[in-house]
Specification:
The chain has about 260 residues and is of the alpha/beta class. The protein has a single domain, classed as TIM Barrel (Alpha-Beta Barrel), CATH 3.20.20.20. The chain is built from ten helices and eight strands. Strands 6-5-4-3-2-1-8-7 form an eight-stranded parallel sheet. Helix 2 packs parallel to helix 3 and helix 9 runs parallel beside helix 10. The longest helix is centred in the N-terminal third of the chain and has 15 residues. It is globular and about 45 Å long. The protein starts with a strand and ends with a helix. The relative contact order is 0.14. The structure holds 6-hydroxymethylpterin-diphosphate. The site of 6-hydroxymethylpterin-diphosphate has 22 residues, from strand 1 and strand 5.
Length: about 260
């Protein structure tokens, strides 16, 4: 099966890559439409940055940022709402989103019941909050611990489809993010579909000596290829056109006769 390409629309003034920030709704909608033209299978709309150290955004402000964008895009493409707050997920479902993407793995007690209304839920692994997660990277066996924790959290979701995501860069050192990608097949072995978000993240910068996310496209494509070859069924990316080519060519290679 060809992996899905999930295009990122950040309705924020402070997401970690400047190129992905769209503070005005009209600009965020235009980005989403462009990513659909470039071949995105699904668009992930978020209104709160989760970069290390990011300040929290209250639910009212997050709803103000995402709802007009979800409402405009949802008639044309599958839209997920990237939020940790049940109130925001509620508003996004009402505006047409059909997938919940929760980086905290359904920590808000209101979130699990809401997943029953979504056709799919993405449960991501993280520890702590964006403010505290950099200090929470002690694991005996990061791959096994992430897998086991994801299975526990995924069991709370009520959607017909439940995805798991290792949370690249969330309470992980750069080395741990590389290890999770290297052993991604251990997540796929659970039987749940795996989504990976490695696009332009700092582990690429650490490995290649590229401090500026603007320089990390080729590294992101390498990470995407590694993920697809280890069973990832969806890639959450900023660069849809390039990732679409990558996914499609890998598919052609795998099906060459
Ligand atoms: N990464 C980010 C945000 N949401 N959701 C999932 N499921 N998996 C991820 O890896 C993931 C995610 C961070 O990337 P981005 O949205 O570009 O940055 P920011 O949080 O600064 O807006």
């Amino acid at each position: 099966m060809r992996s899905l390409v999930v295009g990122i629309v950040n309705c924020t003034p402070d997401s970690f890559w400047a190129g992905s920030r769209r503070a005005a709704a009209a600009e965020a909608i235009a980005l989403g439409e462009r990513l659909v033209e470039e071949g995105a299978d699904w668009i992930d709309v978020g209104g709160e940055s989760t970069r290390p150290g990011a300040p929290p955004v209250d639910a009212e402000e997050e709803i103000r940022r995402v709802v007009p964008v979800v409402r405009a895009l949802a008639p044309h493409v599958v839209v997920s709402i990237d939020t940790a707050k049940a109130a925001v997920a509620r508003a996004a479902l009402d505006a047409g989103a059909t997938v919940i993407n929760d980086v905290t793995g359904l920590r808000d007690p209101g979130m699990a019941p809401l997943t029953a209304e979504a056709r799919a839920t993405v449960v991501m692994h993280m520890r702590g909050t964006p403010r505290t997660m950099r200090g929470l990277t002690d694991y005996d066996d990061v791959v096994a611990e992430v897998r086991d924790r994801l299975l526990e959290r995924a069991a709370l979701a009520r959607s017909p489809e439940v995805w798991i995501d290792p949370g690249i860069g969330f309470a992980k050192t750069a080395e741990q993010s590389l290890l999770l990608l290297r052993h991604l097949d251990a997540l796929g072995a659970t039987g749940l579909p795996v989504l990976v978000g490695a696009s332009r993240k700092s582990f690429i910068g650490h490995a290649l000596g590229l401090p500026d996310p603007a320089d990390r496209l080729a590294g992101s494509l390498a990470a995407a290829a590694a993920a697809v070859q280890r069973g990832a069924r969806a890639l959450r990316v900023h660069d849809v056109a390039a990732t679409r080519q990558l996914v499609d060519l890998l598919w052609h290679i795998d099906h060459a006769a």
